[in-house]
Model the fold of this input.
Amino acid sequence: MKIINYLTNNYGEGNDYGLLILRIVSGLVIFYGHGIEKIQMLFSGNEIQFLDPIGIGGTTSFFMAFFAEAICAILIIVGLFTRWSALVLSTNFLVILFYHIYVANDGFQVLESRFLYMLVYVVIMLLGPGRISIDYLIFKNKRKIE
Done:
């Protein structure tokens, strides 16, 4: 009976654990799958070769992707500047989707995972980090004033 009550009620603690799991898993997936690669490229000593999907130069595009997929992914994992980091990652995936739709003309199989990544970060941006986060510890007093 407890399970039915839990599934039919809105418990704040469950929401916080859900957001924590979403933040950690989505952050780790991006950091491990893309961020580490960008860090290795940055410190390899080789010239940076990177796509220029929006016409700002390959190097600038690389540093923007590095910031999103390495720095912002870590910030989302720990829950620091979470909404801003999720906004950056959502925008990053919007650019990736734009590239794959209009430049590479890729099919749905390629777009599917990128769209889901973007959706996850939009949800994190809208819901925030939850109470199990550094953001909550830092900004909880500010919320009481408002």
Observations:
- The mean pLDDT is 88.
